[in-house]
Amino acid sequence: MKVLKMCCEKLTLVALVFAAIFSTFAGLSNVSAKQMTTLINAETWVEKPEVVQEAQSLKKKDTNLNKREIPEGWRDQKVLSHTVVRQGPVSLEEAKNWDEYPSTTVVATGYTAGVESTGKTEGDPLYGITFSGVEVKRDLYSTIAADTDVFPIGTIMFIPGYGYGVVADTGSAIQGNKIDLYYETVEDVFDKWGKQEVEVFVVEEGDGHLTDEHIYELNEDEAMQVFRDEKYYAGAS
């Protein structure tokens, strides 16, 4: 009799432990006793299509945090770790770390295609044509003049306050560390630049050649179009 009583007590204790474990699992996973039975049945009697279908739907159930457990304000937030995201376009001067490029200090002046700078009038066949043969241009990439012994034709540089300049021209007064920046009018030369000492950054050294096609490709680069708005690129005209 004692033995029978002890066996019953042990069986009762085992049943209580099993019930506690099952209850804890069900609470954490949101799976009910009926659903658990369905899962077991699906693993054991796979020939019952309706049981398998219900079990598969249960397996897909998210047993982690669901939306109702996530604070309302967090649901639509995107977290970018250790990254500061700026809203809207930035200027050319902010777009790159210019310190990564070779730099030099130059005296920069402005010039036009007109007689006051080149001695040519609009009726001249060579009016607006640079030493390299390309047409003068004020754009995202503008034509500039330099001493080709210092900056060969085709050299691309960034001039803070002006933008990208591509060496396309020369000049008798442009010797050593001097450059001449192209503007469309004399008024722009005086109003927007004048004469300045400035640190320029050499993005690419030229090979002595330049074409209108290359200038066009630089200015029409899709990634550069955001800077066309005069608010966002240096020295906009």
UniProtKB/TrEMBL annotation:
Give the keywords, sorted: Signal
An example GO BP is: peptidoglycan turnover
One GO CC term, this protein: outer membrane
Molecular-function GO terms, alphabetical: hydrolase activity, hydrolyzing O-glycosyl compounds
Q: Which domain of life is it from?
A: Bacteria
Family annotation (InterPro entries): 3D_dom, Resuscitation_pf_RpfB, RlpA-like_sf
Pfam family example for this protein? 3D
Q: Which residues form the 3D domain?
A: 142-203
Check the UniProt entry and state the signal peptide residues, or none.
1-26
Q: Read off the PANTHER family from this record.
A: CELL WALL-BINDING PROTEIN YOCH, RESUSCITATION-PROMOTING FACTOR RPFB
Q: What is the designated name of this protein?
A: 3D (Asp-Asp-Asp) domain-containing protein
Q: Which organism is it from?
A: Texcoconibacillus texcoconensis
**Source lineage:** Bacteria, Bacillati, Bacillota, Bacilli, Bacillales
